[in-house]
């Protein structure tokens, strides 16, 4: 089983990265493998709303005209068995880098052909809040809306606060193990 993590965190050693690593440790414990893409390290532009109707090639052909790292990352998500979206929480919402990626992804997923490889793919969301931590639940709602629009089969959305990251680490590790043991589409 291959897990592809898309992280909206700028800090590869911060709280969001620690949450991702706990989940991937569980994936590895159960015999799976995982890969992480840190969005701030990639070149992902925001949607340009190309034509007068606010759409563009995404609606007609299911792909984006912007030549950056978006298409390659979408290919990695398609090839994975499970998608994991991890974000630090800012203002009770997704990080700007994850928002930019998901805004483009959901537009491309409106086209039937681009929906292939995404529709019904298992997905997990991790929303990690620093500060007081109160924004994590609201962030999971925002993430759920976008992932549903893309057609993902959302298995879990996990709100995490800096205050409970230590104890949530065990839960994340178990979640990673559980993901590997889930029956696939052929089972």
**Would you report the number of β strands?**
5
Query: Pairing-aware structural class of the strands and helices?
Result: alpha/beta
C-alpha Rg, in Å?
16 Å
Termini separation: 13 Å
Q: What's the architecture, going by CATH?
A: 3-Layer(aba) Sandwich
Tell me, what is the CATH class?
Alpha Beta
Percentage of residues assigned to helices? 40-55%
Major beta sheet, specifics?
5 strands, parallel
Q: Output the strand order for the largest sheet.
A: 2-1-3-4-5
Tally of structural domains: 1
Low-confidence stretches: none
**Could you state the order of secondary-structure elements as H and E?**
EHEHHEHHEHEH
Query: What coarse outline follows from CA principal-axis ratios?
Result: globular
Task: Name the beta content range.
Answer: 15-25%
Here the CATH topology equals: Rossmann fold
Query: Tally the helices: what do you get?
Result: 7
Mean pLDDT: 91
CATH superfamily: Flavodoxin domain
Characterise this structure.
The chain has a single domain, classed as Rossmann fold. Helix content is 42%, strand content 19%. The chain has helices at 15-29, 57-61, 70-79, 96-108, 112-115, 136-150, 165-181, and strands at residues 2-7, 33-38, 82-88, 122-129, 153-161. It has a five-stranded parallel β-sheet, sandwiched between helices. Strand 4, helix 6 (136-150) and strand 5 form a beta-alpha-beta unit. The radius of gyration is 16 Å and the shape is globular. The two termini are 13 Å apart. The model has no long low-confidence stretch (mean pLDDT 91).
């Amino acid at each position: 089983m291959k897990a592809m993590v898309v992280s909206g965190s700028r800090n590869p050693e911060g709280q969001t990265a620690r949450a991702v690593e706990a989940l991937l440790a569980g994936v590895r414990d159960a015999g799976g493998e995982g890969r992480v893409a840190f969005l701030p390290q990639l070149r992902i532009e925001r949607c340009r709303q190309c034509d007068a109707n606010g759409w563009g090639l995404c609606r007609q052909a299911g792909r984006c005209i912007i030549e950056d790292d978006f298409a390659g990352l979408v290919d990695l998500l398609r090839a994975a068995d499970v998608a994991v979206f991890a974000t630090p929480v800012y203002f009770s919402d997704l990080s700007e880098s994850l928002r930019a990626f998901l805004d483009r992804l959901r537009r491309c997923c409106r086209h039937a052909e681009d929906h292939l490889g995404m529709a019904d793919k298992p997905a997990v969301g991790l929303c990690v809040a620093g500060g007081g931590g109160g924004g994590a639940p609201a962030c999971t709602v925002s993430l759920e809306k976008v992932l549903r629009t893309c057609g993902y089969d959302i298995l879990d959305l996990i709100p995490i606060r800096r205050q409970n990251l230590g104890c949530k680490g065990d839960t994340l590790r178990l979640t990673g193990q559980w993901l590997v043991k889930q029956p696939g589409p052929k089972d």
